[in-house]
């Protein structure tokens, strides 16, 4: 399989949407990556999502996950520059947010 960050982002967003997930593609300076909706608000994220990520990735996470809070919703970074979901953002500069 070959492609760049834009190809990966489009493929991941399509796969996530195909199984009923909500996703966005973030276009930044010289990079694109998908984000996945994981909680409707910070309370739900802290109660349900963060404990699960801590359980699954205990040896990886020392700081907070790569999340975006937008319109009270919590989105998880699904960038391929890390080997696990929710890794730190490669670049936090957002030029365009594409709704899928």
UniProtKB/TrEMBL annotation:
SUPFAM superfamilies: Cysteine proteinases. It comes from the Bacteria. This is Transglutaminase superfamily protein. It comes from Marinilabilia salmonicolor.
């Amino acid at each position: 399989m070959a492609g760049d960050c834009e190809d990966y982002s489009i493929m991941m967003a399509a796969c996530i949407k195909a199984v009923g997930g909500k996703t966005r593609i973030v276009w930044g300076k010289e990079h694109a990556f998908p984000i996945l909706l994981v909680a409707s608000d910070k309370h739900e994220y802290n109660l349900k999502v963060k404990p699960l990520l801590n359980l699954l990735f205990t040896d990886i996470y020392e700081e907070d996950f790569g999340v975006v809070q937008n319109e009270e919703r919590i989105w998880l970074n699904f960038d391929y520059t890390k080997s696990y979901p929710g890794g730190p953002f490669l670049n936090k500069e957002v030029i365009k947010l594409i709704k899928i």
